[in-house]
Amino acid sequence: MRTFIRNYVPGGTFFFTVVTYDRRPFLTDALARACLHRAIQATRDKWPFEVIAISLLPEHFHTVWALPYHDCDFSIRMQKVKEAFTKGYLSGGGREGTPTPSQAASGRRAVWQPRFWEHTVRDQADLKRCVDYVHWNPAKHGLVTRVADYPWSTYLRYVRLGEYAGDWGQEDPCPGFNMPE
Q1: Do the domain assignments include residue 178?
Q2: CATH code of 48's domain
Q3: Residue-range definition of the domain harbouring residue 94
Q4: Residues 136, 112: Cα–Cα separation, whole Å
Q5: Which of 27, 35, 151, 155 has its CA 20 to 30 Å from the CA of residue 143?
Q6: Overall number of domains in the chain
Q7: Torsion of CA 17, 18, 24, 30, to 10 degrees
Q8: Is pLDDT at 3 greater than 70 in this prediction?
């Protein structure tokens, strides 16, 4: 069995990629968006973290989180977000995929792929690359031609804060920087 090594840094900032089971494209549906919002909020209430950036695509999402200075456990936070989402989504009428026999035997639901991908942000330049990548991702996947036209990301918040010009993202802002999709 493969061993996953996580880089737990107290007070760290982390980039995540989280993918739906079998890459089923439902995350931008109204129910899924509402459930994810509630799941993140409920998790933050018990295990605080700051959402620096997020972009929700149909079958995956990217997000950058900053943890409190004394805390490094991003895994419990992501686990709780996925659990709360799954519970709310399925009870709200959302449908899961077909679980494998081993998933069914262990009681796991076929909503998310197991685990998630994480990258520890090293410095301010790396943070900028990660946030740019989060915001550029809908254009990268051909969902929009203008990043400003994508409704499910924090991009417009960054425009309001003056971090980006309204026409930012006409070209790939981080060529060669490819986080797992």
Answers
A1: no
A2: 3.30.70.1290
A3: 13-121
A4: 23
A5: 35
A6: 1
A7: -100
A8: no
